[in-house]
Amino acid sequence: MTDGPSADQWAAAVAAVRSTGPDDEIQLICHVNPDGDALGSMLGFGLGLRRLGFTRVRATFPGDFEVPTPYQRLPGVDLLVPEPDAFAGPRLVLVFDVASESRLGALAGRLAAAPASVVLDHHASNTGFGGVRLVDPHAAATSVVAEGLLSRLGVPLDAEIAECLYVALATDTGSFKFDMTTVSVHELAARLIATGLRPGEISRRTFDSKPFGAMKLTGEVIGRAVLEPAAAGGRGMVWTYATLADLERHGQPPYVLDTLIDPVRSVAEADVSVVVKQTAAGEWSVSLRSKGAVDVSGVAVSQGGGGHRLAAGFTGYGEPADVVDTVRRLLDSYLIR
Ligand code: 5GP
Ligand code: MN
């Protein structure tokens, strides 16, 4: 794993923002199907730009303009525009939580054409695109990097910025449960909470609230999970899948499946967990998790995806069983120990 941003990279990022005029167009972009870290780090930073006096700031992400319900009340959500309303030729582009250009869809062109750009990310698999690169694979969330840049720009944390960054941090640490939950993560969380946040209320709204139909859908999909004790060199794999028909039957949007990996990966008999989620005919978004036996980012990258060592994803094709066959075959090549 490489180190975080160098002093020169931080200075270049500060210069990129400071050399932008107050009325220049600034476009923020996060990854397709945005999660709490993508939206929280992007909107928190966008609010910071507003505090600095920038008047023309827009935030967007590629694809369907579907903001998961829990994030629709994030401060700064008014910065969000659908992809077609993004600035056509912004002076400055900032990219959040994006491991590879493919996760930017058609917006990758906006990044390439911008006179100045900054990439804020924390994926070990980051492919190295964009102008100034603030990529810290040791950061628990992209919001850690965003806060680092805000503080270097002299933007004080207020409750609105803090709520965005807190939701991002809580999302990517699994509510402060994952290995990345270091002393500095808790120190940042403390500074964020000190602005007046109410963590209980934010957690309830963000993680512990879902429609009845989403619960029924989750129950059905968990009910068809398969345990394969011999997979991953005997460390075990558990997998399940969900189709577009499942979503339709329960009247749910695709993003309700994003957290389905959490109950699946709690299975004690399996190191590796896999959720295969249909996105189109014969096309599946695959979530991979490991408890330490497998570098699932290696598996994902080999299939054109990416992520972190113990949490990664890619796009698979065919039937769910075909996708799982591919994963099962690759697991043995990426055993860590
Ligand atoms: P999730 O399973 O929660 O969707 O994603 C887990 C991790 O893998 C996240 O860090 C996410 O950014 C990354 N990831 C998921 N799917 C893809 C993909 O198709 N391409 C890339 N590059 N990364 C992915
Ligand atoms: Mn992230």
Structure characterization notes:
The chain is an alpha/beta fold. The protein has helices at 7-18, 36-51, 108-113, 142-152, 159-172, 183-193, 199-207, 212-223, 231-234, 244-249, 261-265, 296-302, 320-331; strands at residues 26-30, 57-60, 92-96, 116-121, 132-135, 226-228, 237-242, 272-280, 283-290, 306-308, 311-317. The chain has 2 domains: 7-207, inorganic pyrophosphatase (n-terminal core), CATH 3.90.1640.10; 212-334, Diaminopimelate Epimerase, Chain A, domain 1, CATH 3.10.310. The protein contains 13 helices and 11 strands. The strands form 2 sheets. A 6-stranded mixed sheet has the order 6-7-8-9-11-10. It has a 5-stranded parallel sheet with strand order 2-1-3-4-5. Helix 3 links the parallel strand 3 (92-96) and strand 4. Helix 4 packs antiparallel against helix 5 (159-172). The radius of gyration is 20 Å and the shape is globular. The two termini are 17 Å apart. 48% of the residues are buried. It is an enzyme of class 3 (hydrolase). It comes from Actinoplanes subglobosus. Its EC number is 3.1.3.7.
Number of strands: 11
Shape assignment: globular
Give the C-level CATH assignment of the largest domain.
Answer: Alpha Beta
Ions and ligands: guanosine-5'-monophosphate, manganese (II) ion
Content-based structural category: alpha/beta
Number of H/I helices: 13
Widest beta sheet: strand line-up = 6-7-8-9-11-10
Task: Write down the Rg.
Answer: 20 Å
CATH superfamily of the largest domain: inorganic pyrophosphatase (n-terminal core)
CATH topology of the largest domain: inorganic pyrophosphatase (n-terminal core)
The CATH architecture category of the largest domain equals Alpha-Beta Complex
Proportion of helical residues: 25-40%
Q: What's the rounded overall pLDDT mean? A: 97
State the separation between the terminal residues, measured CA to CA: 17 Å
Number of domains: 2
Q: Largest sheet, if any?
A: 6 strands, mixed
- Series of secondary-structure elements, N-terminal to C-terminal: HEHEEHEEHHHHHEHEHHEEHEEH
Low-confidence stretches: none
Beta-strand residue percentage: 15-25%
